[in-house]
## 1
Amino acid sequence: SQTIHQWPATLVQPVGSPLSLECTVEGTSNPNLYWYRQAAGRGLQLLFYSVGIGQISSEVPQNLSASRPQDRQFILSSKKLLLSDSGFYLCAWIMNTEAFFGQGTRLTVV
Amino acid sequence: QQQVKQSPQSLIVQKGGISIINCAYENTAFDYFPWYQQFPGKGPALLIAIRPDVSEKKEGRFTISFNKSAKQFSLHIMDSQPGDSATYFCASRPSKPSKLSFGAGTTVTVRA
């Protein structure tokens, strides 16, 4: 069966520190992968999506970047975090019509 | 620009009551309309979905009503239960590419 793993579950980082969130999927090949951010009281904002290794599309300009080093691995990064980067980050895999989400990472930048 | 507008932002309903959440979309190319349920600290999970060739879909206590001409769709939760307390997101997407556009979410609280 297909599963999606995302870690860490929670993270508290100081302003200016780097960030690396990892997402991996199992049970499929060449998945379409997505990073979403959910700010408090707001919806799901699409940050990046990838249709294959090394292929990254950015939806909004921001302080974050994404990479797809392997077929089933999707990484969200930042060189220097800002306070505004705080939020709930979700990795998703969309297969045909259905989206499967990871458990999310609660990032608090202090 | 938000392509899917969802309302209300939150609602409180008594146990056994009906919860109604509305969404409106703009892109006429959208052909898939799912609803996701999210519990605190968890990722969203697909609840129910509809395609524009039908006006209504029912799964248990959950019903989607779809109005293609008005570009609106809604989720009805019948006989609401405390376990239904969650945040609900509507979404939509065109046939290609497969990006989902989400509404802002509705936090539903069912009081016992």
## 2
Amino acid sequence: GESVGLHLPTLSVQEGDNSIINCAYSNSASDYFIWYKQESGKGPQFIIDIRSNMDKRQGQRVTVLLNKTVKHLSLQIAATQPGDSAVYFCADSYNFNKFYFGSGTKLNVKP
Amino acid sequence: SAVISQKPSRDICQRGTSLTIQCQVDSQVTMMFWYRQQPGQSLTLIATANQGSEATYESGFVIDKFPISRPNLTFSTLTVSNMSPEDSSIYLCSVGGVPDEKLFFGSGTQLSVL
């Protein structure tokens, strides 16, 4: 049968600029969230996580913001580099039971 | 983080055959999951692999098509049965509870069905 692939939304940024990638989740009971980076031909790579009792968490060059009111998650990447080019996914979980993934965003960093 | 080994990394199979994918972790883990990622799409949870009992399947996935084993806390297999071209996807093993309940992924199995 024919397989139809969806086109991921793409965010194009200039090297050195900051990137903001957004994600919406549907389960209001979700209490744990993870951002992943997936490069071509590889499995998703853990970037940063946040629990629902927080609204912001910072890592190395990355910040995750959580807005539980509107069920929205964002990933901010500071000083974006060509090596950041990849597809980014958010995932949410309730009580660390199962993880469901968002649709993904392709980040394209222009040198 | 745990080291996750998934085999095979890729395979090309004929319609109607079955393929078993293995996932081996270098430490005992609480949770093991199997995901499917169709071309250009996000990850879809197939099932939770439960140690010593039947897997818990998500809506749209059934045991007859995707039998799963988990004999211990470090190993699981996913079989894709009676394959058709629509099964062409990347299949990913993931583990959690190591040690602080993060979820990590293997490198995946690229399956092409002719």
